[in-house]
Amino acid sequence: MDVFASVVVNWLASTPSFAVPFALAALGLIVSERAGVLSLGAEGFLLVGALAGIGARLALGDGAAAGALSLAASMAAAAVVALLFATLVVLMRVNQVIAGLALVFFCQGLTSLLGALFGWTNRTVPGIGELALWPLSELPVLGRVLFTQDAVVYLTPLVFLGATWVLTRTTLGLRLRAVGENPEAADAAGISVVGYRFAAILAGAALIGLAGGYISVVSTKLWVDGMSGGRGWIAIGLVIFARWAPWRALGGAVLFGCIEALIPQLAAAGVRLPQ
After folding, report:
1. Distances, alpha carbon 90 to alpha carbons 18, 186, 245, in Å
2. Fewer CB within 10 A of the end CB, N or C, for the chain?
């Protein structure tokens, strides 16, 4: 019974870190799609963010702020690549599905090339340590599950809260949704459809890049080719499942995080389960 309890506690404690990439990527897609842009390039943004995060972490060393700056570099790199996607779909009016799929292939090749060129593949980094919220961290079970996590886990619900408030309670959110739902009426009202869509694509890509940086810098602490592992496609499914509602997407991310976190725990307990 003690072994079973240990497996359950370890599983629940690791679930938030597995859920964060799904949650951030899904939120980034929601921001983009609220402006009327279907961003199928999420898998590519994840890879770019993951590679940029590792590159920045290796360059910055082991300083206290290096982890945060590495995640910021992940966001910036994904946003830069998103400029290409935004130019294609907003200015040149290329089919969004084709542009998104092409971007994924481009990012897969680009990250593989740069990772090998700079020698970043399989090089470990220190990562980001856990923050124990004392005295709540001393609670049995819940202390380890909810109050002994890294900073990004704590920030993710706050990011969702802020995004929900902006989308539903502010003029900026109203205009963004108007651009997505009826661009002709928004343009007639004097709202810059091109500007809002560019901003939404870049902001969404930055969140997805943060998810990629979290995978490489915080979770695995190294870079390998294709390490996103299809999480971008799962995030797209989550957004559809959640009907573009941020909190539903967060719930779906926790569900997928639970499933993904369970596999290594079962393997450690001697249960063989194909991933």
Report:
1. 33, 15, 24
2. N
CB 48 within 8 Å of CB 232:
no
Count of C-beta atoms within a 10 Å radius of residue 58: 17
Q: What is the pLDDT of residue 130?
A: 87
Q: Can you list the residues of the chain whose pLDDT is less than 70?
A: 1, 64, 274-275
pTM over 0.85: yes
Give the end-to-end CA distance of the chain in Å, rounded to a whole number. Answer: 25
**Strand pairing partners for 149?**
131
Q: Tell me the C-alpha distance between 188 and 55, whole Å.
A: 45
SS3 letters across the chain: CHHHHHHHHHHHHHHHHHHHHHHHHHHHHHHHHHCCCCCCCHHHHHHHHHHHHHHHHHHHCCCCCHHHHHHHHHHHHHHHHHHHHHHHHHHCCCCHHHHHHHHHHHHHHHHHHHHHHCCCECCCCCCCCCEECCCHHHCCCHHHHHCEECHHHHHHHHHHHHHHHHHHHCHHHHHHHHHHHCHHHHHHCCCCHHHHHHHHHHHHHHHHHHHHHHHHHHHHCCECCCCCCCHHHHHHHHHHHHCCCHHHHHHHHHHHHHHHHHHHHHHHCCCCCCC
Three-point CA angle 22, 28, 33, nearest 5°: 120
pLDDT of residue 1: 45
55, 110 contact by CB (below 8 A): no
Which tokens hold the place of 211? 């998810």
Give me the pLDDT at residue 116, please.
95
